Amino acid sequence: MIRWILRLGGGLLLALVLLLAGFRVAAWWREGPVETPPPMTMVATGYGKVAVQLSGPETGRRVVLLHGTAAWSGFWRDVAAHLAAQGWRVMAVDTPPFGWSERDPQGRYDRASQADRLAQLLRATGGPAIVVGHSFGAGAAVELAAGNDAELVEGLILVDAALGTLDPPAGRGAVATALSFAPLGQAIISSSVTNPPLTGPLLRSFLARKDAADPWLTTLKAPMEREGTTAAYAEWLPNLLIVNDGARSRTRAGLKAIAAPSAIIWGAADTV
Predict the structure, then answer these.
(1) What is the CA angle 152-132-247, rounded to 5?
(2) Global confidence as pTM
């Protein structure tokens, strides 16, 4: 009986490995060279070029829009158009490795690096702005407002901000460490985030109004066809679960140091 159970367990494990390998091969097959959409402007930083969508009058007061996990600047389309019509100079950013920005060959996707990337972007495009951060993207916004480049943040708006635990214990954590193993991370990403049949169910799982996902599915999938998407997302993945990367914004003292006028917008029916 024990021998039979071990054989069954081994067979199931092998089947799982083959299934995940199949998802990874499928992702490799889907991803390839694609052209950056025409509305994008590429801005050089020390981390590589960052893709942004600019709208509104050049003389308008500046507002920067930061997206959440696996999204990109295209998700701000309607908000950006509204703000631009009100006279704002809007800059919707593709935060690497998402969207159409260049991926960082050194994999610097931790919160502090994202904030520094954003600071360089702001300086290269005109200086201070009101910064809006949604979900996971709020981490970089808060870190910028709490760090050495805080003068670049004229105002801080956090939309359903995913900021994690304050004053976390030292260390990366076992899960984040395991996901740093590239084959494992790529298997998880290719079987979920970049797997086209799961795009709809995953997006709906984040929404209280499930029907609201349908108009955005094409938008979500667009940059996932870029070459190297699965590998880049997997390199970023541990940052989703790291509880302590040394960022100031992960501490109460860091948050108390924020001087910029701040607002929090939180959906009453937010399922996350």
Answers:
(1) 65
(2) 0.92
Cα 99 to Cα 111: distance, rounded to the nearest angstrom: 17
User: What distance in Å separates the CA atoms of residue 150 and residue 129, rounded to the nearest whole number?
Assistant: 11
58-89 confidence digits (pLDDT tens): 999 999 999 999 999 999 999 999 999 999 99
In tens, the pLDDT along 189-239 reads 999 899 999 989 999 998 889 999 999 999 999 999 999 999 999 999 998
User: Exposure pattern of 120-143 as b/e (b: 16+ CB <10 Å)?
Assistant: bbbeebeebbbbbbbbbbbbbbbb
In this structure, is the dihedral angle defined by the CA atoms of residues 243, 27, 40 and 54, taken in order, positive or negative? negative
Cβ atoms of 87 and 123 within 8 Å: the answer is no
Q: Give me the DSSP letters along 205-218.
A: HT-SSGGGGGGGHH
Q: How far apart are CA 215 and CA 220, in angstroms?
A: 10
Give the separation between CA 185 and CA 176, rounded to whole angstroms: 10
Q: Is 228 left (phi over 0), alpha (psi -120 to 50) or beta?
A: left
